[in-house]
Structure formats: C-alpha cells, structure tokens
Amino acid sequence: MEQKAVIMDENAMRRAVARITYEILERNRGAENLCIVGILSRGVVLAERIARKIYELEQVEVEFGMTASPMPPTLPGVPFIFRYRISVW
User: Whole-angstrom Cα distance, residue 56 to residue 67?
Assistant: First the structure.
C-alpha cells in the first residue's frame, strides 16, 4: 500500500497543540471554567491533548469530551455524548 503524504510530523503536531493551547488560555484568561469539546471521532483525541497541555502549563484539570455534531453542545437538540476529567498523571 502506498504511503500517504505526511502533513505534520510528531514535532509539528506537538507545536500546533501547544500554539492552540496558548491561544485558548489567552482568550479564556486562564483555565478556569473551561471544557474542551472535540467532534467525533478524531476531535476527542485533539481535545484530550489540549486538556493535557493545559494541565502541564496551568496545573488545572480541564474537562474534555466529544459531541457527534459540529454544533456547540449547549444548543437544544445537540446531545453532549461523553465528558471526561483528566486526572493527574
């Protein structure tokens, strides 16, 4: 099987997650009252990576989860499927 093009290697992905995390923390003015939600199916992996990076930077456990829809889970009719809380590792 032919290998697909590599868009981001491991280091580029790590840097991108760090940049996204810093942007979230700046716009939210910290990690308090924050929940990271990813869209099924790979969005939850990204949400978890961001939550872990927030813990690494702020020592604050942030909930993360996933939704089946790209619509915010606070809208009527859009179920919030799962919620997780990262624990200290």
Answer: 25
CA distance linking residue 28 with residue 74, whole number of Å: 18
CA gap 80, 77 in Å, rounded: 10
Q: CA angle, corner 19, sides to 15 and 22, nearest 5?
A: 135
pLDDT tens for each residue of the chain, 89 residues long: 787 887 888 899 999 999 999 999 999 898 888 888 887 767 888 888 999 999 999 999 888 877 666 555 555 554 544 454 544 43
Token representation of residue 41: 């199916």
Q: Which of 65, 52, 62, 64 is nearest to 14 (CA)?
A: 52
Contact yes or no for 10/37 (Cβ under 8 A): no
- CA–CA dist 67, 73 (Å, integer): 7
